[in-house]
User: Fold this.
Amino acid sequence: MTGGPRLVLRDQKPQGTQVRLGPGLVVGGRAFVVMAGPCAVEDEAQIAEAADVVASAGCAVLRGGAFKPRTSPYSFQGLGAPGVRLLLEAARRHRLAAVTEVLDDDDLAGLEGVALLQVGARNMQNFALLKALGGLRRPVLLKRGMAATVDEWLLAAEYLLAAGNEQVILCERGVRGFDPSTRNTLDLAAVVLAKQRTHLPVIVDPSHATGRTELVIPLSLAAAAAGADGLLVEMHPWPSTALSDGDQALLPDGLRELMRKLPPVLGAVGRELWRSEPMRRAVAR
Ligand code: PEP
Ligand code: MN
Assistant:
């Protein structure tokens, strides 16, 4: 027997896996799902304002890191458990689902209400964490490691499926390139390849992929055209004061612009944008 991927392969489930994040909210179906919010939860006012913007733009999911995997130990490490509580309160107020990163399975007890548990790029091959999350029956967002091959990424997903958890969404977030003009290089070929090789939904994070606000909308549209199932985008109400990743955050207006520009691109590839019920009614009017 070879050590290659098995359970994640498309021929195991040709119709594709749909991951349910809440009532009427599925990733991997016809609807393209936008998840947006700040890199990190900073305080109550910031995440409350972000949630207002995310909901009123018609997005489905609020992001916000509480446990932050920072390159330097001297950088803001996130608010921890109180940050998760603030994220969930803000999301609940607007009936948004929430996504946040889990660094350590010891923190899972405090992440009960979180719809989608993120494994960050730095932890893609944290096999103990993957095994622990594989033992849950909860949706997991598996980011591609910054220097991981597509095979390594699929095998990391295989850990989750092999341990019994099929509710896995893959996320391309850029790989290390040679050019400091962008933070990483967005590998859209890997998105298409992962969609062809596996039955799992694949979304794109254009924020960490580029590190630059002005590149986020164009690359989001490219991801939609390439067949991604959704986006994970950083948006901060006041990016100049952000405690992390302010340079790549969309402003509220940027998020609204993105949500206006996505539908024609999605329409051209036979998809539609997931929008909240009030937004759908407003658009239909
Ligand atoms: C994040 O999404 O908050 C994050 C840290 O991203 P990545 O793991 O892709 O660097
Ligand atoms: Mn970030």
Summary: The chain has a mean pLDDT of 97.
